[in-house]
Fold:
Amino acid sequence: SEYNVNCAELEDLVQVSQTPTSQTKVNWCATSRFGPFKARDFLTLVHNRDLGDSYASVACNVELPALCPAKQNYVRSQIQLSASFFRPLPGGKTEFIQITQVGELGGVADSKVAKRIQDGLVLNAPVEFLTKFNEAVVRDRPII
Structure:
């Protein structure tokens, strides 16, 4: 949530595996309300891996009602797939590629009005994310 304004809550639920170069876990995250729409929550399987010269993080929707049943104040939604790839470039820069496919958002969020709001998020959320992410990196960068 530090650099993703659409992530109001985030909780790691279970560590599936961990090696020196990778980590797999299940997490729960939630958005705030969007206008007239209830907050959404998502249960995802997240895999992070150091690829040597680059880094990848991949998340996909999971349904584990025994681990995390649907919560009363949220509409359970799906992030079908989300992948982020980071690769250092010369000059202290980083190539960053992010791919996201949102599944069903549930309830009235699947209406035509909600689709227009979702289209606005598709256009604005990546820019906001990268701006906040850059602020976090610059702020936390050690001074040598």
About this structure: Strands lie at 9-19, 22-30, 40-50, 55-61, 75-76, 79-89, 93-102. The CA atoms of residues 128 and 141 lie 20 Å apart. DSSP finds one helix and seven strands in the chain.
